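To illustrate the input format used throughout this study, we show a single complete record. The first block contains the structure-token representation of the backbone; no residue identities are included at this stage. The design step must infer an amino acid for every position from geometry alone.
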């Protein structure tokens, strides 16, 4: 089998394609042939070492493919089409997975869509429906609204009845986020988004800000909130946020801050299946649109990371083994 490993933390070039023996599944495990692997911003943090972690890094967490062999008690059959997230080593031709973290793909959803839906789709799902609990009448701000999570967040927030204001860096990205449901879009490299949100909401501010950008946006994100609003800081694409004084939350209007993670929202098999079921079901019904913004051969994982880090991408990036 082939897989992408980073033997040291560092730049995209630390990732190399290596040969390894195909492993045998143990009890409760399945060996899956990967048909498409998802690229996510968290892969960049794991590669650079921002979140610490041990070396070497078996790159990738997400994908879709076909079960080849199973261990005892796996409860799955060879030939099953499955998708997953949270399984290290997914940038590969084969991955060994705990069978209870694999989600069967419904008929009509191909491997590319399955790989594109799992991590970012379930993230948008928990952010909208568990963290923010958006409802009709709410207004929210979505940063990086044409990104992988961003485009799905815009659609789910809109479907929940909320007004969506997006921020993006380019006019092309603005058009994509509008098509995904953002009623207003701010080019945050050209315009101060905090002033724009105040203007667009006639001074009221929004109930929820979804901030995945971090360092460059966080402080002004708090300034976009209505009194008792919620700042959902869920990423750090521009770098981590510096420590700050909680008194700031009072000064901004008794606002709330949370820093959530997908892992805590799909911890049980039941919750994983419920969220994946919603996301895959909406895709199958045409209610949720995936945008695959780029496909790269497995060997070109470094190019995919460079494009993602340089803000050149929209929607989902996939590696095809
Ligand atoms: P994206 O597709 O959103 O890519 C990142 C985007 O962030 C860029 O396209 C860019 O959009 C924007 N951005 C702003 N500043 C920078 C910068 N300095 N460098 C790079 N990008 C920048 O990635 P993902 O959808 O994979 O992930 C989005 C974020 O959400 C990440 O921070 C990720 O870690 C986080 N995340 C968190 C999860 C959680 O549960 N907490 C789960 C999944 C993702 P633009 O050009 O429009 O500014």
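Output of the design step:
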């Amino acid at each position: 089998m082939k897989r992408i490993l980073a033997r040291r933390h560092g730049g995209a070039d630390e990732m190399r394609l290596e040969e390894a023996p195909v492993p045998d599944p143990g009890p409760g495990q399945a060996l899956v042939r990967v048909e498409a692997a998802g690229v996510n911003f968290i892969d960049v943090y794991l590669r650079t070492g921002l979140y610490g972690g041990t070396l070497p890094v078996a790159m990738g967490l997400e994908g879709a493919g076909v079960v080849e062999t199973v261990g005892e008690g796996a409860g799955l059959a060879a030939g099953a089409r499955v998708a997953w997230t949270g399984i290290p080593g997914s940038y590969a031709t084969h991955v060994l997975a705990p069978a209870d973290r694999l989600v069967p793909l419904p008929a009509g959803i191909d491997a590319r869509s399955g790989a594109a839906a799992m991590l970012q789709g379930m993230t948008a799902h928990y952010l909208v429906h568990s963290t923010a609990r958006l409802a009709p009448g709410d207004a929210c701000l979505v940063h990086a609204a044409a990104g992988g999570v961003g485009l799905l967040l815009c659609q789910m927030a809109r479907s929940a009845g909320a007004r969506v204001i997006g921020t993006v860096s380019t006019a092309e990205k603005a058009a994509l986020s509008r098509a995904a449901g953002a009623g207003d879009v701010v080019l945050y490299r050209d315009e101060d988004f905090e002033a724009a949100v105040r203007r667009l909401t006639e001074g009221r501010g929004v109930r929820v800000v979804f901030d995945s950008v971090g360092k460059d946006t966080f402080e002004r994100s708090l300034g976009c909130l209505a009194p008792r609003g919620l700042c959902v800081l869920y990423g750090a694409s521009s770098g981590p946020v510096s420590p700050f004084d909680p008194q700031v939350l009072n000064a901004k209007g008794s606002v709330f801050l949370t820093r959530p993670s997908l892992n805590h929202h799909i911890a049980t098999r039941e919750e994983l299946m419920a969220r994946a079921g919603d996301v895959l079901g909406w895709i199958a019904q045409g209610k949720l649109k995936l945008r695959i913004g780029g496909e790269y051969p497995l060997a070109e994982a470094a190019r995919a990371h460079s494009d993602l880090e340089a803000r050149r991408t929209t929607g989902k990036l996939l590696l095809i083994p």
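Structural context for interpreting the output: The chain has two domains: 2-119+267-320, 135-259. The mean pLDDT is 98.
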